[in-house]
Amino acid sequence: MKKIIRITRIFKFEMAHALTGYSGLCRHIHGHSYQLEVTVSGQPIDMPGHNNDGMVLDFSELKSIVQQEVIAPLDHALMLRSGGDTIPATAANSELFGRIVWTSWQPTCENMVVDFAQRISGKLPEGVLLHSLKLYETSNSFAEWYASDNL
């Protein structure tokens, strides 16, 4: 009997952003303590004696993928949309602005989960699928991405 199981790992990171052209306060550089919930699905390995017997994916493998693709490049970074009103080149070259991540899209929570889904799904091992992402921008505000909505 085929059994599909979902596993989830939670990650936390700090990042700042600004929304270019936005009329509210978020047009200014500000930061968030993000929480990212990553859920993958698959069939647990059914091979007695296999190192990962009974697992869809070792949680440490999932941690490694998300760490490499999302956390390491974005933790304590400033995410900004390229073009438009951006920080002056002199400031961009200073030590204070050493971790700027430029995007072609508005760095909203919604756009970030789409980007994260692309980064993570391509790194998962065969037979393991990205099921969903939930990105908390604050303790009571989040965006969700589901694979089933994006077929």
From TrEMBL:
Signal peptide boundaries: none
Enzyme class, UniProt record, top EC level: lyase
Superkingdom field: Bacteria
Keyword Disulfide bond: no
Cofactor: Zn(2+)
The keyword Protein transport is assigned to this record: no
Keywords per UniProt: Lyase, Metal-binding, Zinc
Catalytic activity entry: 7,8-dihydroneopterin 3'-triphosphate + H2O = 6-carboxy-5,6,7,8-tetrahydropterin + triphosphate + acetaldehyde + 2 H(+)
Similarity comment: family membership: Belongs to the PTPS family. QueD subfamily.
Annotated protein name in UniProt: 6-carboxy-5,6,7,8-tetrahydropterin synthase
Source organism (scientific name): Chitinophaga rhizophila
Organism lineage string: Bacteria, Pseudomonadati, Bacteroidota, Chitinophagia, Chitinophagales
